[in-house]
Fold:
Amino acid sequence: MEPWLKFARGVDRLNGWIGRGVAWLVLAMVLVGSFNAVVRYLGRSLGSNLSSNAYIEAQWYLFSVLFLLGGAYALARDSHVRVDVLYSRLSERAQGWIDLVGTVLFLIPFCLYALWVSWPWVMNSWKVREISPDPEGLPRYPLKALLLVAFALLLVQGIAHLIRQVARVRGVEIDGGEGLPADQGHGGGHA
Structure:
């Protein structure tokens, strides 16, 4: 079981690095949005248009990147929203079974389906080098490619999660994973 858990910890490290990196996009979104608001009002007072659709789209693109690449990070940290009516009252092993079944029946098939249906859409976008139809719009094809990256990362993190749940139901001691705080990750924080 240890080689599988080592793989899971490697996936955690990868998604941890990506998650911590994209977290900085929140600051970039705030700066772009603030800049756009300031130049829009400054432009009105000067009688000139200093704002651009590109700023608005950049803010949305940054949010999209944050959301898409943050999903696997949230799964690694067990930070996703969970309706916790009975789950917290169950034994560690029963929680592991619920997570294992949910991962096998829902998470992994959903990621595979999303990759399958997104592939032609993304490839077509790259083929035509799709851009926004708005004036001064930004290219869309790189952002659409992130759908594939995001679901691939979520799939791999789902496999790591599955490995951990198999260990959990077998009663194998699972550490917090490298780079994870002791109180978070792999069965810790539920809503």
User: Anything to note?
Assistant: Confidence is low (pLDDT under 50) at residues 178-185, 187-191. The chain is about 70% helix and 0% strand.
